[in-house]
Amino acid sequence: MAMATVKLSSPAAGLLAGGRPRRSAPARRATVIRAAAGSYSDELVSTAKSVASPGRGILAIDESNATCGKRLSSIGLENTEANRQAYRQLLLTTAGLGEYISGAILFEETLYQSTTDGKKFVDCLKDQNIMPGIKVDKGLVPLPGSNNESWCQGLDGLASRCAEYYKQGARFAKWRTVVSIPCGPSALAVKEAAWGLARYAAIAQDNGLVPIVEPEILLDGDHGIERTLEAAEKVWSEVFFYLAQNNVLFEGILLKPSMVTPGAEHKEKASPEAIAKHTLTMLRRRVPPAVPGIMFLSGGQSEVEAAQKALLARAKANSLAQLGRYTGEGESDEAKKGMFQKGYTY
């Protein structure tokens, strides 16, 4: 168990403000504070730094079996485990993917699957220096007592699940909860989101997994960008308050914030410069400097080679964007379309 010792004395401890010696000042004892994450602290920091390495990003392929089935049905394939395995294999065996991708979030089924040749998917990722991750939440459900808002379930049994995921090769975790601006957001919903994320983060770290902290500010609504900034600052303030209360190691987490934009139904679209300005304002005001990485996750082709080229192209675009060098030159009209879907669940 890692321990941190804080000494509450100093060379001037025996002096009053005016420099005169104290009379019979009681001895001050050192306070020992338990560091979060136990024996995994060093590994968590190393994992977080690897996932947040410059020029690389996270591949999110953690769709549920039902959502994956929708993708398969669009090309006339049945939603079977064998077809889902083939789809995942197509993506995870892309040559050169590790140049642009540092971590891959997997659905539970995928974490335990192998290629048709018998190689574990987690080993395919590790061979390219890609950290395997795992979705650990159990989805959104209505929040009783709120203004038609949601909360994220999954804390029950989370410790044992994280321990098993770690044994299987996972090294980071994802937990997504949401906050709706048109619904308030209510103080209850904000507190529930923040507390749930903090408990998840502490449990994940205690079992060797770097937690991605993700309170998504939904795009639904006709509000302006200033209203989004106000809500985002409120949410992230609560999140970090409860993370600290739960002794979460900030150097061993990753953030997934929403960009600060107007609501999807707002009458005026914000410029990229305005979105960047408001997003950076929120992050600078709320995120402690100890946090190693901020990840903005984003959102067929039937021929295998064409599909892998498409994935690699998107990964490279993400890499350039992270380095501030993305221009959009050569992108297709399809790639430039927005990905917002009202009331989206997965």
Automatic annotation (TrEMBL):
Annotated Gene3D superfamilies: Aldolase class I (3.20.20.70)
Catalysed reactions, as listed in the record: beta-D-fructose 1,6-bisphosphate = D-glyceraldehyde 3-phosphate + dihydroxyacetone phosphate
Gene Ontology BP annotations: glycolytic process
Keyword Magnesium: no
Xref: PROSITE patterns: ALDOLASE_CLASS_I
Involved pathway(s): Carbohydrate degradation; glycolysis; D-glyceraldehyde 3-phosphate and glycerone phosphate from D-glucose: step 4/4
Top EC group: lyase
Residues annotated as transmembrane: none
Record EC number: 4.1.2.13
InterPro entries in the record: Aldolase_I_AS (IPR029768), Aldolase_TIM (IPR013785), FBA_I (IPR000741)
Domain of life: Eukaryota
GO-annotated molecular function: fructose-bisphosphate aldolase activity
Keywords assigned: Glycolysis, Lyase, Schiff base
Similarity section: Belongs to the class I fructose-bisphosphate aldolase family.
The protein's name: Fructose-bisphosphate aldolase
Organism of origin: Panicum virgatum (Blackwell switchgrass)
